[in-house]
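Work Package 3 (structural annotation) set out to generate three-dimensional models for the target panel prioritized at the project kickoff. During this period the team completed the workflow that converts sequence records into discrete structure tokens, so that structures can be stored uniformly alongside our sequence database. As a representative example, we reproduce one entry of 350 residues exactly as it appears in the project archive.
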Amino acid sequence: MEFGMFHEFPSLPGRGESEAFDEAMEQVDEAERLGLDVMWLAELHFEPRRSVLSAPLSIASAIAARTRRIKIGIAVQVLPLCHPLRLAEEAATVDQLSRGRLIFGVGRSGVAQTYQAYGVSYAESRERFLEILDIVEQAWTKPSFSYHGRYHSFSDVAVAPKPYQKPAPPIRIAASTPDTFPAIGRRGVPVFASVRHTTWADLAKQIQSYHDAWREAGHPGRGQVYVSAPTYLAETDERARAEARESIMHFYREQANLLEGAARLVDAETAARRMRRVNQLRNLAYEEGLEKHALVGTPEAIARRLKALQQEIGLCGILAELNCGGLVPHRQVLRAMQLLCEEVKPHFTG
């Protein structure tokens, strides 16, 4: 089992951006010391009250310079907003600087407002995603190449540097809609999923479609499944639930507002699906959220749940959102990380 922390580098109420970076980097340093496997970096734009993490590869370079062991994951790079050659160069540079510690998570994001701000059509996001991913993979694995697609065209380009990892850093693809799970299975790559908006029960059905498509495509073995989830640990269940409450409920209120804004910018079918989710989030009770969308409790309880998920969905790793909502005090985030590393992780090693 791979243990990672999903980090948004949250903005700090009443404090400056430099302090937000300093606090987040202190958590990175502690993760390195405690033996956490991966630090996962979000990509978030134009939400200054939420996050200062808009440039994950830049942050990944800084982490590479101050650590020696921990892997550095991108969760996820929003491919349709990138120039593929520049992206291939920058990600390969991070892999070189970290001596092969980059895990390259990619996705499309459902935040249509970001596409609008960047001047990119959200309706084109799926095609752009596939084209850019294809270009990046060729840029990393071929001495030189040419490409002529709908959105990008290059002739005889040689990208440098190449990644440290050969043939390329591991790629994981995010899935959030039912149709994307089997598509990723057919492609034969690991899948990222989340229970922020999807229940554990619904996620199990979607993951099954990924495994089915993997098998039907003839890929060997079984596909790897990694899940991000609102996560918090404390010495007692009561304390864990109480300390995480304000931040998690704040997160769901803000997610409802974000999705409502995005629904105005997409097609009618997608908008209707998102508005149903908006209504669900606004009516979500805290106890229901903990049961259906989170991992909150004592280390013993979290370890039991993760072992069950290994059996139920083939879980290979967790991206623990230890500060989902960004309002958990710094010292409590560090304590939750310590409990995860020292009292949960040992159950899955050896």
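The chain has twelve helices and eleven strands.
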